[in-house]
Structure formats: C-alpha cells, structure tokens
C-alpha cells in the first residue's frame, strides 16, 4: 500500500510520500537509542513539563489537525476535534499522575525480613525504545494513549503509522519536538508493513505495541516472541450490546446508535452485536432502525454530517462482502445494506441494521468495520451471555439492565476486557483498556498501561540502604 493521503470522501490522492530507505531507518534507530540513554535519567517534573506543553500546543492546533484527520480518514470533523481534545486531556492526566503511578513500592518490613533483607523495594524503570504500530481509525488517540505513558515512564517511541494517515503521523513527531522533547524521543517512520520486522528485530528496540487487525497482531507477536521482546496488542472487537427488560429503553436505543456509528462505525470498541430480550426486542428494533435510517450520510467536513465515508475502498468492499453474505444466507436488512444513492465518488455506505443473523453467516464471527449492526433476539440472561460470548473477540461489552443480580452475572461471566452498564464503552486515561481472546493482551491507559513498558525491578538490601 503506498504511503499517501487519499481523501475517502472523493477517492482523490492528495499527497504521496516516499518510504524511508534502510539508511534513513538506521539513522532514526541510532537517534532513538542515543535519546533513550539521556532521556531515561530525566525526572518526572521535567517529563511532565514537556508533556503539558505538548498538550497546550495540541489545543492550539486542534482545528487544523482535525481537518487533517478528516481529510485522511473521513471521520466527521466534529469527531476529529473531539479526538484532539481527548488526546490533550490524556497528556495532562499522565503528566499529573505518572510519578505517583510509578512510585517505588516498599513491602512490609516483616515480609522484607522474611526474605532476608533489611529493606526491600520495587522500582519501575523504563525499558527503552518502544515501536508502536498504529491504525488509521483514531490516528491521534491510538498513538497518544501509547506515547503519553511511555514518555512519562522514560521510554522513547518509534511510530509506524498506517500508510493512509502520513500527515497525521508526521504531525505527531513535530508536536513532540515543538514541545521541547529531545530529538529522538518520538520519531515517525514512514515505512511499509514489510519493513516492520527488521525494525522490531533490531536489538536497540526493546518492545512493541500494536493496535490493529488480528493478522497484523499475529505477525508482530510472532516476531517479538522470536526475539523475546515484550508486546501489548489491542486487536479487533465485535462488542455485544445487551438490552434486558429493566433497561431504560429510550436511552438504550439512543445510545445504541452512537455506539454503533461512532467514527463512521470504524471503532474496535463500537457496539456491533445487539442482543435484545424478546420482551423488548420489537420495540427496540423499530426505534433503533428508525434512528439509524434517519442519520445524515455525507461530507465529513460538514457540521451536519452524522456518518462520513469509510476510510478506504478496500474497507468498504470488505464490509459489503459481509453484508451480502448475510443477506444471501437469509438475514433481513431492516435498513441500509447498500451504497447510498447519488454518491458516485467516495467510499460511503448506508447505516445498516441486519436481523435474523445466524451462526453460519460470516458477520456472526467476523468484525464488521463500518456502520452495520446485527440484531439478535434472546429469551433470558443465560442466552444473552451465551450469544455475547459466542465470538472469537473479547474487547469490551455493553449491558443495559437495572437489575443488580443480572449485573453481577455479567461481571462474572462476560468474556471481555470491560463491562459497561447502562452506557456505551469508552476509553479514559484513568481506566485500563484492552481485551481477551483474539482481541489481544496487555492493557493500555491507567496505571496498568504505564507499567506495561517498565522493568519491574526488585531491590534487596542486606543492610540498611547506604550503610
């Protein structure tokens, strides 16, 4: 795939970029390695000052970088602005909390003496150069939720971004440089996917993090495993959205629409499978379909647009294949199921609701990365949990019930990295984020995320420190 900005609203190639050659990559690896050796010794106060400055600059740049993101991957402009604001918030959160999250820990004196020590401590030390392989769907947020904690922990970053968001990728490198981070602390590598393995195998790279598809995660994990290097993977999701009789149905329906079409439906944590109790199924399906059908599909730069184009032509083709397979096998399109009329250019697809989905349909097992929802009717909590867990993915989940016993059941039995009651899944710097099963492993955000790329060091003193 060429490294280029291609406007998904028109299909027009706006700008192309040359891929870095081996000598350029080597120079950046050497710069990153040298930067880490110096940057690792900086204190939290200095790192915090730099990251807060980056947040201030991002606030100033919000409108411009939002337009860049919308141009490159098609999200509505309002959503792009919100993404930039969320990134600045996350930077400030880590700038203010990293020191406490990585504070030295001292086991109780009795336990230390039982271990033969006068004093024992646990220190969190940075690992080194971390390679980040990131996707296009949240081109700022996916990177910042790695970069902010990694930099605050004393690591340095190399970004291999998706090939269709090169201008956003280059902006991030420039942002951290303008904020005052030393050269080499954060660099963008304009390389294709075929060049990732060599970078990951380089001994100067200590670890990797990837957000993206399951095949991409498998490839990076295989190389990292061969090199015995730490990885964090956030892969696909096909999140369930369960609605039970005690739910506030009006709120559940409104939220369901947002949960499905956020980011034009191209979000790993978007609700995709709507599992509704038979007592409220008909009412939910009618209201949900009406709202989905009423969404405005159009130019993502227009403030009135609810759903813009899909980011790539291949992405739309993949989505069409899933929907067409389901329809051939007996599913019913309550709305959508086609490209919108009158839009000959750009990669648009109508908001779609499919009913009558069965296990032999591909969409039952595969992630639908676009504004397509699948409806399931269930008779009770046991069946709802069984259908929710009948997926190779386990990123997050949404459950609408006001019954406390039902809530306890879902907390205990849901196979997912998160369970959100009476609301929609969302990421926040203070909450750990990640999944199970084929949705990956490890966690981003919160204290769990910042410690993923730290060397947890046991320090044992046979006598009092300094004695």
TrEMBL record:
Keywords assigned by UniProt, alphabetized: NADP, Oxidoreductase
Lineage, broadest ranks: Bacteria, Bacillati, Actinomycetota, Actinomycetes, Kitasatosporales
Name recorded for this polypeptide: NADP-dependent succinic semialdehyde dehydrogenase
CDD domains in the record: ALDH_SSADH1_GabD1
InterPro entries reported in the protein's UniProt record: Ald_DH/histidinol_DH, Ald_DH_C, Ald_DH_CS_CYS, Ald_DH_N, Aldehyde_DH_dom, ALDH_GabD1-like, GABD/Sad-like
Homology family: Belongs to the aldehyde dehydrogenase family.
Top-level taxonomic group: Bacteria
Domain Aldehyde dehydrogenase: 3-459
Gene Ontology MF term list: aldehyde dehydrogenase [NAD(P)+] activity; succinate-semialdehyde dehydrogenase (NAD+) activity
Keyword check for Oxidoreductase: yes
């Amino acid at each position: 795939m060429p490294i280029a900005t291609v406007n998904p609203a028109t299909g027009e190639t706006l700008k192309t970029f040359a891929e870095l050659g081996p000598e350029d990559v080597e120079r950046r690896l050497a710069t990153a390695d040298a930067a880490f050796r110096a940057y690792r010794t900086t204190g939290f106060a200095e790192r915090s000052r730099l990251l807060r400055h980056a947040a201030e600059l991002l606030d100033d740049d919000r409108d411009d970088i939002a337009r860049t993101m919308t141009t490159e991957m098609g999200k509505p402009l309002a959503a792009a602005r919100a993404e930039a604001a969320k990134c600045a918030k996350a930077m400030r959160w880590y700038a203010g909390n990293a020191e406490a999250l990585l504070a030295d820990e001292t086991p109780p004196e009795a336990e230390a003496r039982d271990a033969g020590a006068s004093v024992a401590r646990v220190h969190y030390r940075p690992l080194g150069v971390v390679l980040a392989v990131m996707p296009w769907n949240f081109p700022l947020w996916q990177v910042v939720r790695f970069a902010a904690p990694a930099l605050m922990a004393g690591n340095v970053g190399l970004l291999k971004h998706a090939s269709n968001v090169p201008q956003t990728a280059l902006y991030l490198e420039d942002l951290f440089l303008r904020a005052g981070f030393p050269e080499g602390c954060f660099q963008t590598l304009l390389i294709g996917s075929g060049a990732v393995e060599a970078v990951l195998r380089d001994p100067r790279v200590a670890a990797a993090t990837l957000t993206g598809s399951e095949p991409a995660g498998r490839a990076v994990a295989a190389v990292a495993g061969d090199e015995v290097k730490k990885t964090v993977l956030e892969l696909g999701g096909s999140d369930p959205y369960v609605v039970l009789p005690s739910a506030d149905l009006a709120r559940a329906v409104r939220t369901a629409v947002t949960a499905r079409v956020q980011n034009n439906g191209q979000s790993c944590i978007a609700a995709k499978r709507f599992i509704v109790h038979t007592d409220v199924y008909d009412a939910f399906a009618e209201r949900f379909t009406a709202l989905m059908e009423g969404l405005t599909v159009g130019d993502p730069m227009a403030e009135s647009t609810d759903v813009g184009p899909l980011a790539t032509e291949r992405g739309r083709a993949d989505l069409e294949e899933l929907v067409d397979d389901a329809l051939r096998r007996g599913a019913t399109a309550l709305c959508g199921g086609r490209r919108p009329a009158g839009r000959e250019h750009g990669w648009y697809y109508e908001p779609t609701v499919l009913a009558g989905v069965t296990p032999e349909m591909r969409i039952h097992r595969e992630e639908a990365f676009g504004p397509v929802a699948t409806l399931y009717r269930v008779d009770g909590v046991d069946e709802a949990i069984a259908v929710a867990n009948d997926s190779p993915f386990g990123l997050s989940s949404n459950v609408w019930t006001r019954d406390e016993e039902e809530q306890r059941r879902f907390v205990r039995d849901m196979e997912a990295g998160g369970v959100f009651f009476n609301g929609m899944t969302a990421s926040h710097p203070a909450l750990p984020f990640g999944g199970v099963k084929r949705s990956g492993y490890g966690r981003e955000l919160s204290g769990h995320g910042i410690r993923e790329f730290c060397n947890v060091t046991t320090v044992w003193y046979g006598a009092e420190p300094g004695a």
